[in-house]
């Protein structure tokens, strides 16, 4: 190779290092080939490894030409990675005159060479046509090989840069979708006296279109759980629309049925035919404690009843929003929310979360978690739910958004309180007091005899050992599943009943003593017992809690 | 309130609540009873540790003699109490139907 031949190569090298986009780079490569090899025309085919095809971009608005790998001159050059030099095309059976016929050009001679980068990856195939003064010879092949190497590197670099940018664009789109979706969520939990209200949302990697709303409106507490079909920006935009429409409808004074119907119909009009949103839309009246709701395909709707300790599932009242226009809507479901009751709305991302074995988390587990955490705060219940799902999943991926909305009507701490003279004769009065409290506060009657016994033992202890003169106070407070009691003695020295020694109930008859049996029984019957001494007021206070247990549960 | 007296067949019938206030009366009655004897507890609603003490004192005296108390017609709650206190080991107990 002479110095003269090298000049154009060096000039081309600078061009090939420039940060062009792929299209421009292809043009530059072809131009370089024509210059260096003194060819009349050039083409560059890019190799699509996934499809095993060679692709020729013809023009921006025309579909590129695709050749299967191995077919024709270009294809076999790609396969074998060898230069193919055809000096007289029309005399060579390997040449396909099809292109010439279509373009009207006459190809005399052609050099086809593979473009392989420095990692030995096939980038494509370059062809140069019709050398200016003759045919392509051995020196041309050598020159072309050097050029091809450079072109391959340049093209590969540009392709990788474009892929990187595509990836970034994709990530940006997802982030935007996530931001749009987050914009529909309430900024803070509403504060509603007598209620503990909480909602949370854990998005999947590929944003799934969940939303929820909790807001105090004129019409009451608005409770919404929505789930738009699909992933990415489209469902995020759908739920933004639904959110805005709902708020607007209620702002204009619409009632539940009107809002639900119109939002459904408007979305049916505006969203594409394959998109819909499952949505629970409810209004809770905090004075009557009635929740009225419609649900378009969102369910099951879980209602935990404190009085029975059981969870009931409610079904959707209508098809998903935007599926089709609503012509007639059945009346909303009306639920009474009693003290201690919980409304739990949970999205599919939780019910249908799979573990590695393909098993779904399911409704039963959700019910069990609500029951087990019914006297915790709703924020805590929500955390327990999500923790349980993650534990269940044991590393299996989260495929859909997980959303939880919880509304609990708080139990007012009901306490009844009385004082009794320090004499055993007060015991029947204590029994009467206890029976009345059980009745008026609807405490489980199966606990009555045990509570009577606990109160009598604690009371008699104070009468026997406390040297005060003041009446003894007994306070009873209803608690979930049972009650809590406090017995207080005033003006006494500390006497920790809970520290009394254990009784050996296995001793033979003649060695048994009655002493200590009272406190022994108390310990057997209660769930918890605590002693407290308040020095300033010289109060001795015993607090115990007792709940209904299953028949075969041991108490100690 | 508490009622304790002899029944038709020589058994002792105890009815009502055997709490700390009623124990002295119950003890007085039982101190005069000779064993072995059945204590009909079908209408005994409630017993506290004071009541258990009365039964225990009586049983010790009777078992040192001709024989002790047989507690009949004992309800579920009372069975639990007797079990927790180990009294099912020192008394013959017959649950209610």
Short summary:
With 556 residues, chain A is an alpha+beta fold. Chain A has helices at residues 3-16, 22-37, 72-80, 98-103, 138-182, 233-251, 256-270, 348-351, 362-372, 378-393, 427-440, 448-465, 517-525, and strands spanning 39-48, 53-56, 65-68, 84-86, 110-116, 122-131, 195-202, 210-217, 220-228, 277-285, 290-296, 301-305, 310-314, 333-336, 342-346, 402-409, 415-420, 472-479, 482-490, 528-534, 539-547.
Could you explain how this protein is built, in words?
The complex is a heterodimer of chains A (556) and B (97). Chain A is α+β, with helices and mostly antiparallel strands. In chain A, helix 2 (22-37) runs antiparallel to helix 5, helix 6 (233-251) packs antiparallel against helix 7 (256-270) and helix 11 (427-440) packs antiparallel against helix 12. Chain A has helices spanning 3-16, 22-37, 72-80, 98-103, 138-182, 233-251, 256-270, 348-351, 362-372, 378-393, 427-440, 448-465, 517-525, and strands at residues 39-48, 53-56, 65-68, 84-86, 110-116, 122-131, 195-202, 210-217, 220-228, 277-285, 290-296, 301-305, 310-314, 333-336, 342-346, 402-409, 415-420, 472-479, 482-490, 528-534, 539-547. Chain A has a 6-stranded antiparallel sheet. In chain A, strands 7-16-15-12-13 form a 5-stranded antiparallel sheet. In chain A, strand 1 and strand 2 (53-56) form a beta hairpin. Residues 551-556 of chain A have low confidence and may be disordered. Chain A contains 13 helices and 21 strands. With 97 residues, chain B is an alpha/beta fold. Chain B contains 3 helices and 6 strands, in the order E-E-H-E-E-H-E-H-E. Chain B has helices spanning 23-30, 49-63, 76-84; strands at residues 2-6, 12-18, 37-40, 44-47, 69-74, 92-95. In chain B, strands 1, 2, 3, 4, 5 and 6 form a 6-stranded mixed sheet that branches. The radius of gyration of chain B is 12 Å and the shape is globular. Chain B starts with a strand and ends with a strand. The mean pLDDT of chain B is 94. Classes of the chains: A alpha+beta (556), B alpha/beta (97). The interface between A and B is medium-sized, with 29 and 25 residues.
């Amino acid at each position: 190779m002479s110095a003269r031949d090298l000049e154009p190569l060096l000039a081309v090298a600078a061009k090939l290092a420039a940060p062009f986009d792929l299209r421009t780079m292809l043009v530059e490569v072809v131009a370089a080939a024509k210059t260096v090899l003194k060819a009349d025309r050039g083409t560059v085919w890019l190799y699509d490894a996934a499809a095993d095809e060679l692709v020729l971009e013809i023009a921006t608005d025309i579909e590129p030409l695709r050749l299967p790998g191995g077919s024709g001159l270009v294809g076999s050059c790609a396969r074998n990675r060898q230069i193919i030099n055809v000096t007289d095309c029309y005399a060579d059976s390997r040449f396909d005159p099809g292109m010439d016929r279509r373009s009207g050009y006459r190809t005399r001679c052609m050099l086809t060479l593979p473009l392989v980068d420095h990692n030995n990856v096939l980038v494509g195939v370059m062809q140069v046509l019709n050398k200016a003064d003759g045919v392509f010879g051995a020196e041309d092949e050598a020159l072309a090989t050097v050029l091809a190497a450079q072109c391959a590197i340049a093209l590969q670099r540009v392709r990788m840069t474009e892929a990187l940018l595509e990836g970034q664009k994709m990530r940006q789109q997802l982030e935007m979708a996530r931001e749009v979706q987050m914009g529909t969520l309430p900024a803070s939990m509403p504060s509603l006296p007598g209620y503990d209200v909480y909602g949370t949302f854990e998005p999947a990697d590929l944003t799934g279109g969940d939303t929820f709303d909790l807001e105090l409106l004129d019409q009451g507490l608005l409770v919404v759980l929505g789930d738009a079909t699909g992933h990415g920006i489209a469902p995020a935009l759908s739920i933004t629309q639904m959110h805005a429409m709902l708020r607007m409808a209620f702002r204009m004074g619409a009632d539940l049925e009107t809002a639900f119907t119109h939002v459904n119909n408007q979305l049916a009009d505006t969203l594409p035919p394959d998109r819909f949103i499952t949505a629970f839309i409810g209004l809770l009246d905090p004075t009557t404690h009635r929740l009225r709701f419609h649900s378009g395909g969102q369910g099951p709707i879980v209602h935990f009843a404190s009085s029975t300790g059981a969870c009931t599932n409610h079904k959707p009242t209508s098809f998903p929003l935007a599926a089709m226009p609503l012509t007639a809507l059945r009346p909303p479901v009306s639920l009474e929310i009693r003290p201690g009751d919980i409304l739990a709305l949970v999205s599919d991302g939780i019910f249908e979360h799979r573990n590695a074995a393909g098993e779904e988390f399911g409704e039963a587990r959700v019910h069990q978690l609500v029951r087990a955490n019914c006297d915790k705060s709703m924020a805590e219940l929500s955390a327990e739910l999500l923790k349980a799902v993650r534990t269940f999943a044991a590393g299996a991926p989260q495929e859909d958004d997980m959303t939880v909305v919880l509304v609990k009507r708080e139990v007012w701490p009901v306490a009844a309180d009385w004082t009794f003279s320090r004499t055993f004769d007060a015991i029947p009065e204590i029994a009467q007091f206890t029976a009345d409290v059980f009745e008026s506060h609807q405490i489980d009657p199966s606990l009555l005899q045990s509570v009577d016994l606990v109160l009598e033992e604690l009371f008699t202890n104070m009468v026997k050992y406390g040297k005060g003169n003041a009446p003894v106070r007994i306070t009873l407070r209803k608690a979930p599943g049972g009650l809590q009691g406090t017995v207080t003695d005033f003006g006494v020295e500390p006497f920790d009943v809970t520290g009394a020694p254990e009784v050996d109930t296995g001793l033979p008859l003649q060695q048994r003593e009655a002493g200590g049996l009272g406190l022994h029984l108390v310990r057997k019957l209660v769930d918890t017992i605590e002693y407290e001494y308040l020095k300033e007021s010289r109060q001795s206070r015993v607090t115990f809690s007792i709940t209904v247990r299953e028949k075969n549960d041991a108490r100690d | 309130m508490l009622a304790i007296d002899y029944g038709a067949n020589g058994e002792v019938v105890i009815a009502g609540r055997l709490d700390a206030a009623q124990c002295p009366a119950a003890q007085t009655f039982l101190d005069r009873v000779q064993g072995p004897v059945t204590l009909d507890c079908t209408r005994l609603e409630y017993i506290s540790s004071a009541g258990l003490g009365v039964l225990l004192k009586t049983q010790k005296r009777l078992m040192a003699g001709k024989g002790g108390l047989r507690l009949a017609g004992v309800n579920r709650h009372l069975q639990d109490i007797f079990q927790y206190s180990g009294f099912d080991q020192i008394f013959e107990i017959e649950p209610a139907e």
